Amino acid sequence: xxxxxSLQHRLPNEGxxxxxPWRSETAKQAIAQSEALCRAKGARLTPIRRRVLEVLLASPxxxxxxxxxxxxxxxxxxxxxxxxxxxxxxxxEHGLAHRLASRNAYLASSDVSTGRQTTAFLICESCxxxxxxxSPAVADTVLKVLKEQGYQPRARALEITGRCAGCQDIx
Length: 171
Ligand SMILES: [Zn+2]
What we know:
This protein is an alpha+beta fold. It has a single domain, classed as Orthogonal Bundle (Arc Repressor Mutant, subunit A). The chain has 6 helices and 5 strands. The protein has helices at about 25-40, 45-60, 65-70, 80-95, 110-115, 135-150, and strands spanning about 95-100, 105-110, 120-125, 130-135, 160. The strands form 2 sheets. A 3-stranded mixed sheet has the order 4-3-5, with no helix packed on it. Strands 1-2 form a two-stranded antiparallel ribbon. The chain is globular, with a radius of gyration of 17 Å. Bound molecules: zinc ion.
């Protein structure tokens, strides 16, 4: 029997408010910057990796791997989940995307276009939106604590879950 990775839970979509997604101009710029970054590292942003990144950039919310599979299919053809996972691994390894462990979802990194390293994600449990925040002071403090503990971190960003400002007054 062939083992297929189990379907992941989809993120809730019922949030009424959707903040402005990446504008196409910004996305185009991010793709160009990502390509340059890969080239500089001797890595290749293959058409599939690029497609995955484009879909992540176009989404205002983090996407599960199977949401990506759904969106990447064209002309009735479904992209193999393993292909999507491999592309995601590449994007994460090169700092072009982040994986939110608490949601098992992925999002494009804004580090590439802003040049600022993400410190934390504020993840809304109601609308599913993830807001990236940058705070060198927090990042330095966390790094200092990790060093004191002799701990080697794999993920660079903290994840804080709760309710975003827009969802606090919706019941
Ligand atoms: Zn929210």
